[in-house]
Amino acid sequence: MWSQMLQYTHGSDVTGASMSDFLTLYEYVRAHKPREILEFGTGVSSVVLAHALLENAAEGGPLGRITSMEEDLYWHGQAADNLSDKHKQIIDLVHSPKVDGFYKLFRGVRYTEIPDRPYDFIFSDGPERHSPLNNDKLFDLDLILIVLRSNRPVYAIVDNHYLTFYILQKVFGLNNARYSVSHRLMFVGPVSADQARHLRKENFVPDLRLFCATELKLRMALDEESPPPRD
Q1: Under 8 Å between Cβ of 109 and 101
Q2: C-alpha to C-alpha distance for 84 and 90, rounded to whole angstroms
């Protein structure tokens, strides 16, 4: 896998996920064997995810697929040039612009052209989310929208976007959206459309204080705690 990662980065200034993130992704896909992966932000992580899917298939499992979203046309072209032919067979590279959108009272940003597929695992990577209208810093709206239209439980790993972390905890609760200090990642899931349709007051009570300071605080999992198990 290391040689394939080096091949991808040859001639390309990559950014984004860290080596520890790559290891976490690889171990997750090998252990849980998702069939439809949605990735926000094409890069070296695409190679890692594809390598894990191919190893799963080599052991007799079904071959999965990755839908990799990228808004930057340059990076989209870099991926098309740098991915191996073997990886291109299971990675669908999708270039899509982003637009502002809303979930309840939260303003976020989303891709406009995500293919409608039965995603069971999402990796949210890429740079910070900013409004294409006025450059406001926003959260990643896509994960919630995918969950709302899904008829199956969805799991996700979210990389280092603290505003997105906070809002996911407000939507799905602390048990289903857990930030790991040691990983510097958020582990989400299992979450379903029913959970996303209505905001629950118990997810907000610690942060809503009338007539005094409002606390905006990310709840963090203890380092020794593991991500929630899959069903």
Answers
A1: yes
A2: 11
Exposure letters 119-146 (e unless 16+ CB within 10 A, then b): bbbbbbbbeebeeeeeeeebbbbbbbbb
CB 56 within 8 A of CB 29: yes
Tokens for 15? 């950014």
Residues in the chain, total: 231
Q: Are 210 and 171 in contact (CB under 8 A)?
A: no
pLDDT tens track for 67-91: 999 999 998 998 888 898 999 999 9
pTM for this prediction: 0.83
> What is the rounded distance in angstroms from the CA atom of residue 185 to the CA atom of residue 206?
22
Over its C-alpha atoms, the chain yields an Rg (Å, rounded) of 18
- Each residue's pLDDT tens digit, 97-113: 999 999 998 999 999 99
Other Cβ atoms less than 10 A from the Cβ of 149: the count is 12
CA distance 227 to 222: 10
Per-domain boundaries in the chain = 2-9+18-221
What are the backbone angles phi and psi of residue 145, rounded to the nearest 5°?
-65, -40
Q: What dotted CATH number matches 2-9+18-221?
A: 3.40.50.150
β-strands 154-159, 185-191 pairing: antiparallel
| Residue 90 tokens, joined | 């299971």
- Pair 37, 123: CB distance under 8 Å: yes
